[in-house]
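Two folds, back to back.
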Amino acid sequence: MHQEAISAHDIFPHIRVVMGMVIGLGVTRLLSGVARIVQHPTQYRLYAVHLAWVASVLLALVHFWWWEFGLYQIDNWTFGTYAFIVSYAILLFLLCALLFPDSMQDYASYRDYFYARRAWFFGLLAATYLLDVVDTLIKGEAHFARFAMEYLIRTPILVGLCIAAARSANPRFHTAFVAGTLAYQLSWIFRLFDTLN
């Protein structure tokens, strides 16, 4: 039986649905965690650094969904490319799951939990910075060239800071890191992704 070739523009909406499901689970996890805090504010002591990372990861998820529209430009989809994109979304979901675990019964506060799981959290966060470079390469040389110089500077710095954060429990370092990350995220989004091209 003869099958007509499926165009890349027909494939992309299908892939976007799968990505959306995974990203939606992550957003749900974060919002449910915040809702739990609102519902039971005295159950566990809050920690500003933890909440700032919640805001940062939520922003990353929303931004991921926005910038992945650039995948529309891909002409030849392979299972490898599809698997990579879904894996990237899964990694973002895992960051959400680490910020709000199923149970906090072994911890007195979100501060205790955050520092106990910091190696996992910052290891996954470092991986997302590296995957972001690959994701940009997938979208084509012209797309990558738009960010290349900044990627060469920012990626090693952010990965290095994640490694330091995974090893350090210094509250001042973690406060400065998350504050700087949020400021940089907002700058990155509004400088380079305010409008989709």
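---
second:
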Amino acid sequence: MKTVLITGFEPFGGEQVNPSWEVVSRLDNAIIAGCRVVARQLPCVFGESLTVLNAAIDALSPSLVLAVGQAGGRADITVERVAINVDDARIPDNRGRQPVDEPIVAQGPAAWFSSLPIKAMVAAMREAGVPASVSQTAGTFVCNHVMYGLLHKLSARSEVKGGFVHIPYLPEQAAAHPGAPSMAAATVRQALEIAITTALQVENDIAVTGGATH
């Protein structure tokens, strides 16, 4: 059985929970589209997050990797198109590191694009009644760091597809941020299941027909 690796982050920035891990952890050992899902938590730390992620990829040899992170203030599920080769932290990470204008990979490409069928994923979520959109920026904090590092690693493994999805606050978090949008954990879980299913189906169709993903 093929494996899907899905990751979420530990809490950061003074939050008591991180919606990405709260939801992702519930998908551990789930079977989606005939594949076993394995969930791993990443530290919200520059460098260490990629060490944990890369170790999980090496150990599991997944066919699909979906990294998930919190984007407080966003109102919908946002599927990221691109990660840029820069760490530029507005706040310190969970180890107190706050890099400014530092490359993630020295001499690496300026950017890496998601290898997931991002528009098909968004369309499938919307069809199911889940607010979703394509995002053109993953920021410059640890989420972008992980997305870039993930795609850089997978560039040598063309058979493995990967990308990043940002999700809103949970309602209990938004209660402490008056006016901030939120999304229920059950809805986020539904969205991630749809995202995984769509990515696997599109990849299977590509394998059969030799077509393109976009």
